Amino acid sequence: MTARFTRRAALAAALLLTAPHLAEAQAPRDGSAARPLRVMLVPSDGGTEDGTKADFAPLFAAVTRATGLHFDVRAGQSYSAVVEAMCAGVAEIAWFGAVSFLEAAKRGCAELLAVDVLNGESVYYSGLFVRADFPGHDIAALKGRTLALGDVISTSSFTYPVAMMIRAGLDPVKDLARVRLAGSHANALAALRDGLVDAAGASFDSFEKAVRSGALDGSRFRVLAKSEPIPNPPLAMHPALPEERKRRLRIAFDTVHLSEGVSREQIRGYGGKRVDRYDASVTLADLRPALETIALVDERVREALMRLAAER
Questions:
Q1: Alpha-carbon span 275 to 264, nearest angstrom
Q2: Which domains, ranges and CATH numbers included, belong to the chain?
Q3: In a 10 Å sphere around its CB, with 0-12 CB exposed, 13-18 middle and 19+ buried, how is residue 138 labelled?
Q4: pLDDT for res 49
């Protein structure tokens, strides 16, 4: 783990463990209205109240209606803050990307709960996006250009865009003129929109959401490169939860789409898109297709890109 990442993670933990949060961490949570299960979401779209949190509010409201389990849903300020929330015991459930989930799982702080399913698939895509008038049409055209990326442990706004460049024969550290670490998908796309960079790395879900919301004019931007399918960002739960509560949560998410009084509009996934259902039979093997790509962007690459970003 990089020194910079460690400092940031420690700061996230310190902020989370202020007096009220510390008291919360020590109080057992059973999913009752008085003691709701705490949910932390990685800030894929900036972590605002009208962003990531609003995307998932209908889903958790549906689970509450179907099961009587209650949730306190919050968006983290960074991906590392969500990992630290789980590992510090101030959250029982989290929504991660593949990279941040594996980081938390490696530390014994997370186990898989469920993934969303649409048309029989549980995958999404990362992309490199440019303005419509960008002169190049392949990744090689990024040589000597500037790039905005999201959080350094984001799967689709950092790891996959960087891996795509490496596979295309570019050294992102040596061949890019400058890197801007924007902290989230939405911020990376905003940097592209505002002319601060030549390209941005983000998920297709975030790009499409930005177009739908009017944050981006879709006619002014295009896809430079699209990733291979990525296993969907999973919901995870803390391993220390009682086994009966874990079982109840798995059943709840696996069947919420069938529950009386729950509308299809409430079954939402990444980017707030409507999905068919959630699958609680997901295992680590389902994330295996991402591991080879994730391995391309190791700590050495992250550290070098962070140093490059700091030079701006």
A1: 8
A2: 3-122+232-281 (3.40.190.10), 124-230+292-310 (3.40.190.10)
A3: exposed
A4: 57
Phi, psi dihedrals of residue 199, rounded to the nearest 5° = -150, 160
Compute the C-alpha angle 255/258/261, nearest 5°. 120
The 10s digit of each residue's pLDDT in 148-202 is 999 998 999 999 999 999 999 999 999 999 999 998 899 999 999 999 999 999 9
What pTM value is reported for the model? 0.82
**How is residue 154 annotated by DSSP?**
-
**CB count in 10 Å sphere of residue 278:** 25
Question: Residue 256: helix, strand or coil by DSSP?
Answer: helix
Q: Residue 6 carries which side chain, given as an amino acid letter?
A: T
Strands (DSSP E) contained in 194-240 are 199-203, 221-226, 230-231, 235-237
> Which of 94-110 are b and which e, b meaning 16 or more Cβ less than 10 Å from the residue's Cβ?
bbbbbbbbbbbbeeebb
Which parts of the chain register pLDDT below 50? 1-23, 47
Residue corresponding to tokens 């990733």: 227
Residue 45, pLDDT score: 67
